[in-house]
Amino acid sequence: MLDLANAALRFTKEHPLSVSPEQRESVALKAALYARALTLFEGTLALWQQDRQLDFRIHARGIVEATMYLIALDRDAGFIERMKDDDDKSRHARATLHLRAERFEDNSDVKALLEEFVAESLHGKKPLKLGTLLEGSDFERLYRTYRDISGDAAHVSITSLNRHYVEDPADGSALLMIHPELDSDEILLTMNEIGIAMFIATLILMKTKTKTDLWDEFQILLSRYRDLQREKIARYSTGSAAAIG
Q1: What SS3 state is found at 212?
Q2: Rounded to whole angstroms, how far apart are CA atoms 76 and 94?
Q3: pLDDT confidence tier of residue 61, bands split at 50, 70 and 90
Q4: pLDDT for the residue numbered 104
């Protein structure tokens, strides 16, 4: 994973992106999404090295999300307009909240700007639904991973809170777990998904960048990744069978 992060960082710096006026928005969004995914990838690995296991899993969610957007952009050039609509809807909603909540006695200019912005029509604009981004693609599993991490780690839910409060039924005592550990399934699946997400994201940006001296290195890294995943899955399957026996 660290070798992949290092190669990806060098990939972003080796050759400049070629941008034509017609592709400006598409290239900008894809490049920014890749930079975001790599930023989070490096942060996720740093958290893992510090044994911050739950933080690692929560941070991994952002890598998967950025890759989902990259896949959607790569499949449909018109997705840019959907992203713009979603951003407009979000900014409009936030502006409305500020307008209702703040006092503007000493700054009427800000209030006027907010009122003007909120008054703009958003007719026909719809927010994005993450669950629909990968429909019909070969990568639908990434959304399942995103939801799993969201539901049992990232968002406050009964499931996620179960990690932090462990009760002993024998005496009724309880422990607060500040940095709960992940089980082996969660570690294996999270590592697997952030790895494949970064490979997918890199391949998509390669199509946009068109020139790289790191193709062979990424191929070797992908081969290493596949070998390790097969080894881990085989070891896990053997261990599970032994435990059942």
Answers
A1: coil
A2: 28
A3: very high
A4: 66
